[in-house]
Amino acid sequence: MRLSSLADYAVVMMTAAARHCGGLARVNATGLAQETGVPLPTAQKLVSRLSSAGLIESTRGTGGGFRLSRPPATITLADIIEAVEGPIALTNCVDTSHQECALDGSCRVKPHWPVVNRAVRDALAGVTLTQLATQAPLPLAGGVGGGPVRSTPAFDIPSPNPSRKREGEQVL
Amino acid sequence: MRLSSLADYAVVMMTAAARHCGGLARVNATGLAQETGVPLPTAQKLVSRLSSAGLIESTRGTGGGFRLSRPPATITLADIIEAVEGPIALTNCVDTSHQECALDGSCRVKPHWPVVNRAVRDALAGVTLTQLATQAPLPLAGGVGGGPVRSTPAFDIPSPNPSRKREGEQVL
DNA sequence: GCCAATCGGAACGATATAGTCCGATTTGAG
DNA sequence: CTCAAATCGGACTATATCGTTCCGATTGGC
């Protein structure tokens, strides 16, 4: 349930690009890497992925670079993540139909996964680049709730989780 | 952005346990593995994780097994995922304080991650074992993204409804 | 026409994961 | 009370994906 580092870096780079020129001027991967701190080769790889996905327009040659293909308000977190990691799919059975897990027919929860997957994707699709470029972190008001300034409830489901033994992972 | 296979199997096993005895009787890992199709060693590993997290109560010795510690309506997908994978954290900077992100101070999107992370977690916390144990899934068979598919919250927890995201707005 | 800077893709290495095995503990029966 | 069986619990190994790096193709400027 963790985002890949590539996607994380892609979000940072896209946000930086949106903040810099609003997606109108061209910036190169080198300058953006120096600014954001992302390693240059990784930044180049991300630029390739993002351009392949159609999120940015790349210009080759001397003085080239890239710019956002769409206004920042129309680019969401889900777009960036899908551009880097592929389609958002919590399980294999949601993404491609040809992916068959061993459970297959006896899996009773398979019909439920698309619903959950869509809910998660909607949560990510509700965050736009414009929101991310803002300094003050808005309380997720713009797109996710559908409402104006709906304060997200604190989510108080009685799940005490008393004996949490594994805080991180099996770090030996 | 994909769920680990262990978490997927854990959800299947927990759902099967909830469907079988409603969390009242004891079942062993062997029988559940045979029923769900999960490999037995993997099922044993998952039982260990789930019992460590406090989701199930294990009884050792001959004729032992495990049963759900809480009613199925109070166990959510987020609980199961956190029991297997650890805390739900899209990025490293959200989870623990030991963020080793190279961007660190220059990261402008870091303040936004907790909000997004909570939104995703809420989406997972809104699905209970009772919902997953239901045969008839939520209305998805008709089509994804086409119409306003509304999930009927017939099995929701009596506690505050965890901010259901907008339903059926983004095409998958 | 030449050079230089950039994007694009491919290969290598590393980390984390998935799966499997064996041992310790406990309980029921004899 | 002893034995035996079944269970949980942790550790090891193999695999796969991810992250990083490097090199080539392309294009614009001079």
From TrEMBL, chains A, B:
A Pfam family of this chain:
Rrf2
List the InterPro entries hit by this protein, alphabetically: SUF_FeS_clus_asmbl_reg, TR_Rrf2-type_CS, Tscrpt_reg_Rrf2, WH-like_DNA-bd_sf, WH_DNA-bd_sf
Give me the ranges of the annotated region Disordered. 143-172
Its Gene Ontology cellular component terms are: cytosol
The GO terms describing molecular function are:
DNA-binding transcription factor activity
This protein is called HTH-type transcriptional regulator CymR
Originating gene: cymR_1
